[in-house]
## 1
Amino acid sequence: MTSPIAGGVDCDLHPAVPHLTSLLPYMNDYWRDQVTTRGMTDLISQSYPINSPISARPDWRPTQGKPGSSLADMQRQALDRFGTVYGICNPLYGVQMVFSEDMANVFCRALNDWLVKEWLDKDDRLRGSIVIPVQSVEKAVAEIERCAKDPRFVQVLMLVMGDMPLGKRHYWPIYAAAERLGLPIGIHAGSAYHNPPTSVGWGSYHIEDYVAQAQAFQTQLTSLIVEGVFARHPNLKMVMLESGFTWLPPFLWRLHKFWRGVRMETPWVDRAPLEIVRSNIRFSLQPVDAPPEGDTLNRLFEHMQSDELILFSTDYPHWQFDGDEALPKGLPKDLVRRIMIDNPHAIYTRLKVRA
Amino acid sequence: MNIQLRERPGASASTSIKTAIADCDIHPARAAKDELYPYLARRWHDHLETFGVHAYQGMMEGPPYPKAQPNASRRDAYPPEGGPQGSSLSFMQKQHLDPNNIALGVLNPLNTGQGIRNQDLAAAICSAINDWQIEKWTSKDQRLKGSVVVANEDGVSAAAEIRKRAGDANFVQVLLLSRNVEPLGQRRYWPIYEAAQEVGLPVGVHAFGFGGNPITASGWPSYYIEEMVGHSQCQQTALASLVLEGVFERFPKLKMVMVEAGFGWAPSLAWRLDKVFARLHAEVPHLKRKPSEYIRDHIWWTTQPMEDPESRDHLFQTIEWIGWDKLLFATDYPHWDYDEPSRVLPAGVSDANKQAFYLDNARKLYGIS
């Protein structure tokens, strides 16, 4: 086992909203009435069925309530346990899934305010991601600007499967705002289910949707790179969260090869995809899609040709590893330090900003 | 600006490859629009003239993502007698089969009845394409072998076409495309697998196709490069579907070939499937083995477009994770991203592995002595 070192940054924690009513105090009368009158009770995504094994480690599953809904549990099971100095909260509540941009906007605002009050205010180690109503760029930018006043928000959060490929120009005002405010864009596994969850249609099983996250991340990286997001916004950082990363080298081989072949189509892509990834893109550690023995994984790290790409994450409370094995076996000490401390601090520059 | 072509040996004898090789992805084309008409009933001539092809995509002429080259093909591959690239047997022989010493060439016709919404028309065109492969290609050059194309969305009609070709030595596989109305593991496609297993033909799944779904799980991207790179993600999810639906439990003798979709991603996909399966196997109790074991036993991979990492060690390690016995060399002739046989493998491969890679794996899989 590779032991975690103290002082690390856990870049992917999932505090759970107990119930839609938990957000009511953060809505105005009109929306409180909407939620109540229309009988809305909860927003649970197909991506993470509450009782699915992937959604919570058996020993992290509370006797009652949703996994990840108790701060005391998160403190004991993740923050204290792994010696975390900063933990970044990425709420996965289904607020981007609703089709009304007005409703999504109100729910996102409520979720962000709830995160501040129920989590960030209660533990100094916690930091937040700004959940945005992606369907409306205007409202998304406004929400980023509103939340960014609180330095404890260190990132903007989007889902990997939404309405359109993320590189599309439509989304660029979001990226401009994030770049200006020093906020990386975190792209997390999960779908708004506004499109089929795979590029070949609807599968039958939850397991297919989960496996397909990795392919969705691949197509989004292609889109972000070839549309020229990082040519326009060279200081923008993006973090792929719960994405897996062992697919990255062969993905880049293919993208690089075709970029050499058809770069006349996107002439603004003036650097090789691998270089763009090195300068602008990062990946959370968990899940590690590799065989358990360390040798293969170390080869994969060599294939990635960089020790700066991976950021420590437990993906709490999701079940990605057992016991204290948050770090895969056989990682060299220097790489552990980079993954747990140096790499996250290099990307999340707002971590150390004080209010 | 145009694409950067590598310097390529010409068709002269001095640059010929001495060892015989198999090319598991060659694309034969029709010289003219009506070349298929002799194999189609009169009814369909009128239908095609009046309504054209009603497909699972919007463009009647021209691809939704314009290719990098005319017909996505090499500019030096136009036959001297006219017609699009890949439409002349004699020029294919002269430019490709002879100088590269191709002992076995597997034909994968695209632009068939696949992806057509009218299933009667789809079946008629597929059957016509199969007749055309025999008459124009395989009966004229013994090195060439055809692929049985089938109306992919109509399992019953597809299975009938496969059984019709049973035992016909002109064909060495059944051909599907990766993108269909549903993921390929879905039950609507099972009659195809059942028939293929019954007649002893592997099923090739070539990148491409239209099934009406956006080519990403977030909708339609902007560029041709996204479609090209995206084929490998489509293939990954199609393969995940085949494994997770239990196709290889149901059809234990079925062999499948992933064609033109890359192979570098195979280890990572298999690891991910195994890892998630360890958590979620209760949802798919019809699977009796780990996903990676089905992939190892049932799946072969064509090589073009060849994985091309900076370090050859990374390539070799990746191939070792997959198995040197599972790769089938392919050029994709006459398409623009053609892989040159003599340059595709870096130095440092053993003679035995080279022999497997270039010829023996294909001969064994396709039953060609």
Note: Residues 200 and 254 of chain B are 8 Å apart (CA to CA).
## 2
Amino acid sequence: MISLSARNVAVALTCVALILLPAFGSDFFVDFVATRTLMLGLAASTMVFLSAYGGMVSLAQWLIFGVAGFAVGNVVAESGRGLNLGWGPWTGVFIALVAATLLALLLGILSARSTGIYFLMLTLTYAVVGFFFFGQVTTFSGFGGITGIDPPGFFDDRPKRLYYAALVLSMLAYVGFRAIARTPFGLALQGVRDDPVRMSSLGFNVQLHRTLAFTLAGFVAGLAGVLNIWWNGQIDPTSISIGPTLDLLIIAVIGGISHLEGAWLGAFVFIGANIYLRDIPFLGSIEGLLEERLLAEERFNTVIGLLLLLIMLASPDGLAGIIARIEHGIRLAFRRSNPEGDGSSLRTNGQ
Amino acid sequence: MSGEASTDVADIKFGMLHLTPRSLRALRVIPTIMVGLIVAFAVLWILFLADRSWTVKTSAGAAIEEPGEFLVTLLDGLTFAGLLFVVASGFTLIFGLMRTVNMAHGAMFLLAAYVGIQLQQTMVGKSRNIESAEVSMFAWVVPLLVGATVVAVLGVVMQQLFLRWNQGQDLRQAIITIAVSVVLADQMLLQFGGLAKKMVWPGSVVHFFEILGQRYAFSRIFMLGIAIVVGIALWLWLNKTRMGMVIRAGVDDEEMVRALGINVAVVFGITFFVGSFLAGMGGAMGASFAGAAPGTDGQWLLNSLIVVIIGGLGSIKGAVAGSVLFGMVTAFSPAYLPSAYTFYSIIFTLGTLAIVLAVRPNGLFGRAE
């Protein structure tokens, strides 16, 4: 089942490195870089899953992520805005996941008939409506947001356990999404992506497949949202406004929207750029215009926007696509110098 | 592709639920009936049931008892629809011809607003507390046109540099315009700051008139008037000129137009100019109507999206219908909801979308791809 391709070896090695990371990484790196990368990567992986296997570029993933967070906040927090139910944190997790999954089911039903760019616009609309909903409906939050949300006591040894939770969930999601692609459901979903008319005439229910895939992705996005709320301890509508919604798309696109591992790769680049951009020795030493205009902390969006533009102009399948192409090129060169090489090396890492 | 997934052809089984193709077809009528019931209830509610003295306490009374309040709400909806139309028609024009979803449409709206505000301040010679009495019609129209032209040129530059050579890859183009909008939004924050600014209506349109016992701002009617003029001009341009004919032909069959020896690249450039110009006009009008601040760009991208999703992408008729429907929902839902629940009015926007899509997945005037 599992082939020993360069891709799988690289992913496995990365996983081993990540498992060992807390032993030698600083607490700051583990907490602020690695944990966040895994959380955002998990959220972005749902977008990549829908796009790569279902042909649906969904901008509603960040909304579902946020709704899980708001659900935890409303259930767990004891004072301040929201419902203040003050129930246990694990009850909060359960309710959050149910809420996220149900919302995904509802939005999936509403949008399963739309495809392509229409789907993107529709889900963006849901995302922004969700932002205004939590902003205006003071029953659940209001613009001030919910603060003081404590994770379960289990995670008190921060950052290690929360990091491992994010790592385990990320690995499960990665393996799970790739495994689903090989099930009859996953194969049918990819058929729906490639040719909905033919699949429909073969007797597959196109909309049902799309809706179920969207619901599954919503559940995983909900998991990421729960992790995020434990990490953050607070949530407000601004964090699910159009900017962060697009940030998730940017993460997925930078990493490579047709490669699952691209989600985490993109998240790492995004967060790394956010934290370390000014520390790069060469860039930091450029005085004057560039320093002031581009590299001041608050100009991060300009940099990330330009990076996105560059990647879209150069390679629409992002960094993972660039890596795949380099790997392919090396293999071709290797094969040319070594004609007896087996034919399987020609296979690119398509799904 | 063997196994469970292909065993039940066209039938759906969910435990006890067993749907045959015939019953599935019967199910399709349900959305239409539901929509009919919902609309009927809304009309009934507005006409007779809404009441301030009753337990529900809406902010406007029932339409038959308070025709003035009803008319004001109607005018609010119509005038807002006018602004929506100006912005969304640019969006839909570009999409209709080029299949390009310009996600930077909101950023262009905001940029034109800022340019207009800046220029108006220079023309009046004051940077704050401008009274509308100090603003002549000239000092309003010129900033509007200049702001719109600036973003129109920017739109053409963007199209020529980034979009021209990957025509047809709609998702890639959408993400490229997202990148442009992210950079633009950030640079505008740097340039114009984070505080809300406002363009000032010219003094000659700032007065109130009486209608059925209610006072109403003339500036809103003025805005609707501009929108109607824009709409008529667009209609004339698209239906009565050679260029318009080429554009309409291009919407239907771009290959054929190209084969007939028409330089489609020029037509694309012009369409992008006009589409962005409309976003810019909307920006200056919106800045006079509700002000401009960081975030306004996202909001107007959303407004454009809602209008075209309701009305159908690429259709000017659809933009009119979508604007009117969305404008009405935004005006009526807060006025006729029980006042303790006014903040739920945002749900009605989503509800409208859901209802329209349930009945017509491609929007009211949209065509299936």
Note: Chain A has a mean pLDDT of 85.
